[in-house]
Amino acid sequence: MPSLQTHHTFHLPAQCQYIHHFSSSDTFLDLWHGSATNYLLGGGSNTLFLEDFEGQVFINTLKGISYRETKNSHIIKVASGENWHELVTRFLAEGWHGLENLALIPGSVGAAPIQNIGAYGVEAGNFIAAVEYRDIQTGETNERMGSECLFGYRDSIFKSALAGHILITHVTFELPKKYQPITTYGDLAKLTDPSANEIYNTVINIRRSKLPDPDTLGNAGSFFKNPVLLASHYQDLKNEFGAVPGFSAGNGVKVPAAWFIDQCGFKGKTIGGVRCHPDQPLVLTNANNASGDDVISMAQLIMQTVNERYAVPLEPEVRLVGSAGAITL
Ligand SMILES: Cc1cc2nc3c(=O)[nH]c(=O)nc-3n(C[C@H](O)[C@H](O)[C@H](O)COP(=O)(O)OP(=O)(O)OC[C@H]3O[C@@H](n4cnc5c(N)ncnc54)[C@H](O)[C@@H]3O)c2cc1C
């Protein structure tokens, strides 16, 4: 059985029945229908195989980029198997700005709209004009405009109504020709009139200094989503616990999940081979030949402890896959 260890960034030693690398959507559909249990994978940076998967895994290698322009915008249609960070780098080299705040996020272009990847004040959905996909059952090709993708915080229609039913084949970006740096977030605010390249380099430096590199220490980035609380709940927490960090988020207050995890004493804690990162408690790491059970035990203990103490249910951001498919904790 082929190993999935190098195909997901947490690097647990799971295996599966077969791995297909597909470079055409027709091939993907043909092979997919030949097997009952399947999983579609991009870069495996938001997926964690907890144990051996009793089915076939399909790795997306759809490639290609096409360009056109309007008076005010660069319009770039990108195949979903392209690598996200390489794309951001290539756009900058062409002088096309907008995605520089999203440098160094691992994974494929096709997964970017699914959880509307975001970092340093920018979300991919801000620049996505359209997403093209094939219905896995019917093979039909459809396109959804960015405004129809229901982008939200780590969310979109591809994570809800369309989840599991489609293969995203292309993402079309619209990047304004007028340069508009976004420096609202954290250390970027210290930059004065930065060029897109400066933002790109600064983001890369910050990320390298703060986040463990999955190639050397297996991890899946932020393990939990930051909870968005009702304003009244947030106020209750502040009354009881003093300074609780929070940021206005549409209909509520977003509180860093890392704060809750830190307050509950998990920083640097180990269960089996899994360690809650000592500097970034939102990141669980494969510190010492972790098993899927170690991951589940650590995640459940964190969720239970935070909920008991603060009445805040944390939700994993990472997709957890068991022997028969995706599971929820
Ligand atoms: C070190 C590290 C840092 C990270 N930092 C960030 C960050 O700053 N911001 C952020 O938002 N995320 C971050 N992430 C999470 C991750 O990089 C993103 O979610 C990324 O978009 C996942 O891409 P992927 O191709 O690896 O997805 P995968 O894990 O391969 O797949 C994720 C899900 O999407 C589905 N899928 C994949 N491709 C397709 C397709 N073409 N069509 C339909 N469904 C598909 C899969 O079935 C799966 O359910 C980080 C992860 C790591 C490891």
Q: Which overall shape is indicated by the principal axes computed on the Cα atoms?
A: globular
CATH class of the largest domain: Alpha Beta
Give the biggest beta sheet. 5 strands, antiparallel
Terminal CA distance reads 27 Å
> How many domains would you count in the coordinates?
3
**Hetero groups bound?**
flavin-adenine dinucleotide
Tally of alpha and pi helices: 6
List the quaternary state of the chains. single chain
Q: DSSP strand (E) fraction? A: 25-35%
- How is the CATH topology of the largest domain named? Uridine Diphospho-n-acetylenolpyruvylglucosamine Reductase, domain 3
CATH architecture of the largest domain: 2-Layer Sandwich
**In total, how many beta strands?**
20
Mean pLDDT reading = 97
Our Rg estimate from Cα atoms comes to: 20 Å
Element order, helices and strands?
Answer: EHEEEEEHEEEEEHEEHEEHEEEHEE
Strand order of the largest sheet: 5-6-11-9-10
Helix/strand-derived category reads: alpha+beta
Helix content: 10-25%
Describe what this molecule looks like in 3D.
With 329 residues, this protein is of the alpha+beta class. It folds into three domains: 5-60, Uridine Diphospho-n-acetylenolpyruvylglucosamine Reductase, domain 2; 65-207, 2-Layer Sandwich (Uridine Diphospho-n-acetylenolpyruvylglucosamine Reductase, domain 3); 213-327, UDP-N-acetylenolpyruvoylglucosamine reductase, C-terminal domain (Uridine Diphospho-n-acetylenolpyruvylglucosamine Reductase, domain 1, Alpha-Beta Complex). Helix content is 22%, strand content 27%. It has six helices and 20 strands. It has a five-stranded antiparallel β-sheet, with no helix packed on it. A four-stranded antiparallel β-sheet has the order 12-18-17-16. Strands 1-4-2 form a three-stranded parallel β-sheet, with helices on one face. Strand 17 (274-276) and strand 18 (283-286) form a beta hairpin. The radius of gyration is 20 Å and the shape is globular. The mean pLDDT is 97. The structure holds flavin-adenine dinucleotide (FAD). The site of flavin-adenine dinucleotide (FAD) has 32 residues, from strand 2, strand 7, strand 11 and strand 12.
